[in-house]
Each structure stands twice: as C-alpha cells, then as structure tokens.
Specification:
Layout: H1 2-7, E1 11-12, E2 20-21, E3 28-29, E4 35-36, E5 44-48, E6 60-64, H2 83-93, H3 96-100, H4 105-120, H5 138-156, H6 160-190
Antiparallel strand pairs: 1-4, 2-3, 5-6
Length: about 200
C-alpha cells in the first residue's frame, strides 16, 4: 500500500483514530484508508463516527471544508402557485420575437422564466432540511443508549465477558430498530388509499 500511495502521489486523510473493532477480541485498529489527490487534501476533513452502526467498522466521515449553503436557497411551493398569472406572464414576456432578438436566447429564456416564477410562485423559507424519523420511538432510544454503553465498556475493557455482552446488546438493539422501522412502514402503507395525496 505504501508503494502504491507513493507511486500514485496520493495523500492519506486518516488521523490516528481507529476504524475497526474486532468483535471477538475487542482490539481496535485502523485498517480502512481514505486516500485523495494532494490538491484536495486541504479542502476536506476526515473523522470517524463514534457508533459502529451495526458493523465492526466505524463509519468514516469525509466533509468538504468549502462552504456550500445549499439549504439557504429555499424551494418552490408549487401547490400554492398562481398558474394563471404564471401562464399569462410567460405568454406576454417570452415570445419568439423576444427570444430571437437577443444574442443568448437560452440565458434570456432562463432568466425570464425564473423572474416570472419568483413573482407568481411562493418559495419556502430557507432552513435546514429535516429527516422524518417517526419510527424512532422511546424503545429505540433506550436500545441505542444501551448499545452505546456496552460499546464504551467493551472498548475500555475488552475482556471476554464485556465483548460477549456487547454482541448480545448489539443484536438486541438491531432487532429493536428493524422491528420498529418495519412496523412504522407497514402502518404507513396500510393507511394509503385512493384519497391519499401524492
């Protein structure tokens, strides 16, 4: 690997964090390598998520240090649009004559369309996107807490009893989360009928 990295002129993003926990012995090691081109090295940050998430490898998180405020754009509220006003404005302002008389028709069309949409279609307030986790009930929270506690104990003292206890609690936690997710999905699907909104 070292020869490959040197020959290909790659940069290693890893820090000194462990990326793997042996389920039998509890020994930790860093066997997962994250490589990138040297030009990207200073533009990203590397870290390890502190929960195994049901695996024996810790998830590796690589984030861009370049600011990208995508959430500040907002989204169009199409269901609240004034489509009659939108159509009328398009017919008046976007004509064949107006498009053919400009040097860049595509840019003209795009700008006109966005301007008309801004005047006739509402946009949502910029904000962070939220993920619907309706299935993550109190029983799931308790299972995750127990899993984290057992993992912490296994990492601190990787004795046979602690590792065995961790494996049992990990399996129970996984079953609890899967059952809750499945039950929530079944409940949601069973409530869908011909009157349900798209």
């Amino acid at each position: 690997m070292e020869d490959f990295i040197l020959k290909q002129n790659m940069s290693v993003l890893n820090s000194d964090s462990f990326t793997y926990l042996h389920p039998g012995t509890g020994t930790a090691s860093a066997i997962d390598l994250s490589l990138c081109h040297p030009s990207l090295y200073l533009d990203v940050s590397w870290s390890v998520y502190q929960d195994l998430c049901g695996s024996d490898h810790y998830p590796v998180i690589i984030r861009s240090n370049v600011p990208q405020d995508l959430d500040a754009l907002g989204s169009w509220k199409l269901h609240k649009a004034d489509w009659n006003a939108f159509t009328d404005a398009c017919c008046q302002e976007i004509t064949i004559d107006s498009i053919t008389s400009v040097t860049d028709p595509i840019l003209f069309f795009s700008e006109k369309l966005i301007t008309i949409a801004s005047n006739t279609i509402l946009k949502s307030e910029p904000g962070k996107r939220t993920v619907n986790t309706i299935w993550f009930i109190s029983k799931c929270k308790a299972a995750v807490r127990a899993h984290h506690k057992a993992l912490k104990r296994a990492k601190k003292s990787p004795f046979t009893d602690n590792m065995e206890n961790y494996r049992i609690i990990q399996a129970k936690s996984r079953r609890t989360l899967c059952a809750s997710c499945r039950s929530s999905w079944q409940k949601y699907v069973s409530g869908i009928n011909s009157r349900t909104s798209i």
